[in-house]
Amino acid sequence: MKKRQSILTDNSRLVMESLAQAGCNVFIGYPITPANYLYKYATQRYDIVQDAPDEITTLQWMAGYAAAGHLPVTATSFPGFALMLESLNMAYMMELPMVAILVQRLGPSTGTATAGAQGDLALLNGMISGGFPLPVLCLSNAKDCWDIPAKAAQIAVELRTPVVILTSKEMMMSLNSFDFSSLKKITPVKRKFYSSEDTYLPYKPGKNLVPEFLPLGDDKHRVRITSSTHDTKGILQHSTPEALGNTVRLHDKIVKNASKLSLYELDEDGGDTLIVSYDVTAEASREAVGMLRSKGKKVSLLVCKTMIPVIKEYNKIISKYKNVVIAEENLTGQLRTLLFGTAGREGVKGVNALGKMISPNDIVREVK
Amino acid sequence: MEHKYISTDVSIFCKGCGHQLIANNTEKALQKLGLKPKDVIFVTDIGCHGILDKISEVHTFHGLHGRSGALAAGAAMGINNPKKKVIVFIGDGGATIGLQHLVDAAVRNVNMTVIIHNNFLYGMTGGQTSGLTPHGFKTETNPDGKQYQNYDLSSMLSNAGGSHVRRLVGMGDFSEELYQAFKVQGFSSVEVMELCPSYGVKFNTGKKVTDFIESAGMEVKLFPEKIRSPYTQNERNIASSLFNDCKAIPVKYKNSLKKPLKIVLSGSAGEGAQLAAELFAEAAVASGLNITKKGSYPVTVGVGFSTAELILSPKDIQYTGIVTPDIFIITSNDGLNHAKAKLSKMKKGILFIDSSLNPVAVDPGVEVIQYKFRELATPRSAIFLALDVLLKYVRVFPAEAFENVIQNSKIGAKFNMEVLKKAEVPKK
To answer: What share of chain B in percent tops pLDDT 90?
Structure first.
């Protein structure tokens, strides 16, 4: 066993170092609380850091850098993310790898910048026009803040897609002691560019439905990248079968590769009660499970880390339980609605809060 | 002719559209420039001009309406190669919604050329008024003529610092002017003035493009050229790891904690609550404890309350919130006002409160210790003194650990350590 090496840090440092080690080399920033620590760390660590004049420019520059072969990152909160939405749709359609970190804070609108929340999952689920899934991975503790960002970078490259890392204020800004020796080594993401002599078709489906990538400005092959409905050549089309087939492929590419995205934590203990949570409330849920078990209550825990697409394992796990308690720091139960729709399911209830963290006791009370 | 950049033998625009003329002149200018097609990147967006992609023989990058300026800037900065030519095609509508992108690219002097297809209206959507529509020009949405003046885009781009900015009337052969712009290393733009044959001509019968240029007072010229270096990506002096300045903290002290201890500090912004809590956290780690520290303050940062929540534990900490503190420290009125709700939940534990504050009602189970933190240590160090007194009173870990961390911190040289060392311990 390695000797414990305690460091004192916020998790923003873990996230940004993880991404850097995975191969992300560009950070485009526009300041917003509570994502500012991420921006600050990027300026210390990334090869290229650009201070964009707004969040639309941020995503556009990221798309430009990504098209040129870089792996860009940004970090923001809802007000900034809202401005990025159209451009994220663009990057999704163009199939450009990049990572956007969304640090949730209390809304609606400008809300309270220095208060945490888990209010943006519903938005993320519907953010791509047409209901297409853009991968969203969520951080539930310090360990995730190291492991998952590198995974997000890998998925962005392997699936040629933007990936969102979902987190929230306390997860990114609180200071905690952390065992440095527990950090796993991160393998840099390998970038493999199209190398054949044959004419390059930028949207010809390759392995796992992912087209091979080639940076804009390549000396040998012409590269066409577009956000409009297009054929495999990257030429704008109205609605030809080939072009619509390409659009369907964008959906299938994510859904059929969902196994690469399957990240969750399951701690089963028999019984018929399951607590489900994500993000900052996952920690309260873990503590609640410990408290309940210490009193002899059999209770299981599912911490969702892959939020979008909703992976089939979740339904499989949840269907085994008569009682399901879903804990999340929002008013309406966004994960609950994502999993069960507005009709819900018998035996499913939520623990919700607005403007304050959900405590382990809040969850324990609901399980009893 | 060795290469072809645009297949201009096919006309893709409406009959009489100036966009076709721009395509033809671009082809001619690029022929003169002599770059390989693989060294040229066309960046287009939504607008009639955007259909140029399909007859282009160069790299194409087609994005959102009006965002091609930013998309191209990202690509040009990402490619960072003076041998590659990035050319943006944008309409006057796109230039309106994406104005800041163009201004920003000019400010940075990004290595790209922007060709603005200024036909005074949104052609693709039916002829609506744009920001570049001149005063008096009739459109579908302003049938009586626009009532106010247009943005003078070229003046703005020139004032922003673009190396080479030109406005011209889109007639005949202007390939030489485009060639001059393409040759520039840095930001260049050519605003080509034209009339949309489908809407501009229809709504403004008998008028010529020059009539509107003249009445708007827009100058057709090459604006004063700026001798500036183009944007280049310089190598940054960066850390090899973010952990370089976040070293492991060796355990030098012992602690007596058997279960988690929850402490809330509540003071005023600018009086060091967050820093005191961070240094306290470091001392706790140096005493073999796990710790979390959560800060809370208004968005304005420099005024009002500032609170920090500390959880110390011999075991791993999961939930980082504090519903009911074991120890509350209040050193100012701002802190007291913010603390009231949480304070009312305390049924036991200790409240350290500055003597200058009005008495506060607490549960009888809470031990109240009044102490002249502000008077003895000055308001800026009051929370440091309070934490030091807490350690000497509760003895979770040695106060020496905290004092040493302060001494070795960025505030160590100026901090009055004597105040801490001489602090009297309240009697139990």
So the answer is: 92
* Residue A226 CA: distances (Å) to CA of B11, B46, B58, B60, B112: 22, 11, 14, 8, 19
Task: Report how far apart, in Å, the C-alpha atoms of A360 and of each of A267, B75, B159 are.
Answer: 16, 48, 59
Q: Beginning with the edge strand found earlier in the chain, give each strand of the sheet holding B40-44 in spatial order.
A: A224-226, B59-62, B40-44, B85-91, B112-118, B187-193, B164-169
Tell me, yes or no, whether B223 lies in a domain: no
A4 pLDDT band (50/70/90 cuts)? Answer: confident
Pick the CATH number of A6-182 from 3.30.700.30, 3.40.50.970, 3.20.20.70, 3.30.70.2750: 3.40.50.970
Q: How confident is the model over A23-27, as a mean pLDDT?
A: 98
Same domain, B298 and B403: yes
Gap between the terminal Cα atoms of chain B = 97
Beta-carbon separation of A8 and B84 below 8 A: no
Our CA-based measurement puts residue B303 at a distance from the nearest CA of chain A, in whole angstroms, of 14
Is the residue at B12 inside a domain?
A: no
Residue of A64, A218, A286 lying closest to B73 (CB–CB):
A64
Q: Is B81 within 8 Å of A217 when comparing Cβ atoms?
A: yes
| Nearest-Cα residue of chain B relative to residue A231 | B54
Interface test with B, best of A225, A289, A292 (most B CBs within 10 A): A225
Q: In this structure, which topology does domain A263-367 adopt according to CATH?
A: Rossmann fold (3.40.50)
pLDDT tens figures, A281-304: 999 999 999 999 999 999 999 999
Shortest CB distance from B67 goes to which of A56, A65, A286?
A56
ipTM over 0.90: yes
Q: Which residues of B touch A33 (CB under 8 A)?
A: 299
